[in-house]
Amino acid sequence: MASPRAFGRAVGLDARTVLRVGRQLFVRNLIVQYRQSVLGYLWLLLPPLVLALTWTLLSKANILQGEKPAVPLPLFILTGIFLWQAFVETLNSPLQQLTSVRHTLAKVRVPHEAFVAAGMGVVVFNLLVRLAVLGAVMWWYGVGWHLTLLWVPLGLGALLALGLGIGWLVALLGLLYNDVANALTLGINLWFLVTPVVYVLPGRYAALLNLNPVTPLLLTTRNWLLSGQAAPSPGFWMVAALASFGSLLGWLAYRLAQPHLIARF
Questions:
Q1: Cα(226)–Cα(143) distance, integer angstroms
Q2: What is the pTM assigned to this prediction?
Q3: Mean per-residue pLDDT pooled into runs of 10, the chain (265 residues)
Q4: Could you say which of 21, 61, 71, 158 has the lowest number of CB atoms within 10 Å?
Q5: Angle CA(169)–CA(175)–CA(179) in degrees, nearest 5?
Q6: Cα 84 to Cα 74: distance, rounded to the nearest angstrom
């Protein structure tokens, strides 16, 4: 980067390419995603549904102790898993997309952001499909519509921004060290356990679990979806603001390191 002005000019020129190529890659990814699968796009729903069923059975068997949610338990758990999966898919997307084309990144003049944008398009598509299913499940359980549904896109945007910000940094390290992908899988599994995805936030551990940045975003978005509780969870606005800033900072870190990454390929 010769100067901030040259950097800004390069970003502006790349932006148009990112939109055009990213859209083409998104359509291609959507078509080939499950092309050789018998169940096809049902795989969007089967893993979270099976996971939700498993945790529901564990809760009803009193293997999981804790406070019961105000809405039907299966709906509560399914909503949490759908939101968690959106966050995890966003976090994984930059590394997955860039790893799949790492051998061509140095040979083609396509901004790396185009591949990430295509991956994010798939993440948003998957999320919309799951939200449509969730709407049907809410109707089945007789959960009414609330004005707080208007706030749900804000909560989803903050959740995705958090995942994307971390995802850029993970991609930066993961393209240099293969160990990062393996460590990420382990870390996400542990992260799931300390996030109130399938259980109500226990009062005695609330202060500790609220240190997890996903907690206020997930809890608030789930409340807006299911209970109509307008007041966000403690720390929501701060984490949402930091997530927005973090996604930009993560992209900037990757962009500045991009020449060095290409030299290592």
A1: 7
A2: 0.90
A3: 66 76 83 63 75 78 73 92 96 92 79 90 92 92 90 96 96 89 91 92 85 96 93 94 94 85 72
A4: 61
A5: 90
A6: 15
